[in-house]
């Protein structure tokens, strides 16, 4: 396989811009996914429309971020308020795509991992917002992600030539799935089966990077989620029996594992060995 030439300088900046624009476009689509999937509506049709007056959104009013600014956050037809969450989702997705590009790079072998982790960033954000909204992680997103993750991580493995990483991914996905399933049996009030199914997907990605990423990613979910839950209780915003969605913290923990998992795990082993 021929290596791609190193990318640097203005060309690297252009790559980041392309990643950001792609993220904006995907973010616009994620707004549709987050609204329609929990309601079991098609994400293909009908075209997007104002939820107040139901007038179809014109193409010129469907440009990520810019259209919201041009319209000053209002519907062109009925002047109903358009939530700022829409452009924020688009901007966040763009930022995530740029960060993924920075994490893996655009040279061989990192470039082969970009499609897989772009996909994870997109579904991670969508599932986070849906879980916050309705306290549910829809099978319509989670279950197909097993096949998509396997295909994209397989592509990344083919590009890197490290076939052991794909085997490790399969084992890691199974381990994290079983771990969460046991937690569900022991403490069913603490999480739902949607969390268990999502754990398998996240385990695939984390273990593909390494066992350290898997351990740190899994641990970070409970650490960050626990700190947030305690903060809510201390500030009176939640009680000890309040239902707090755990999916967002699983995604946040996975992000930590992807970004710094291997380095943190190596540092930890260096301290105890």
Structural overview:
With 273 residues, this protein is mainly α. Helix content is 68%, strand content 0%. The chain has nine helices and no strands. The protein has helices spanning 9-36, 66-70, 85-104, 114-134, 139-160, 163-186, 193-209, 211-234, 247-272.
Write the layout of secondary structure elements.
Layout: H1 9-36, H2 66-70, H3 85-104, H4 114-134, H5 139-160, H6 163-186, H7 193-209, H8 211-234, H9 247-272
Helix pairs in contact: 1-3, 1-4, 3-4, 4-5, 4-9, 5-6, 5-7, 6-7, 7-8, 7-9, 8-9
Please supply descriptive tags for the structure shown above.
273 residues, mainly alpha, 68% helix
Total beta strand runs: 0
Order of helical and strand elements: HHHHHHHHH
Low-confidence stretches: none
Instruction: State the shape.
Output: globular
Proportion of beta-strand residues: under 5%
Instruction: Report the radius of gyration as a whole number of Å.
Output: 20 Å
Average pLDDT works out at 92
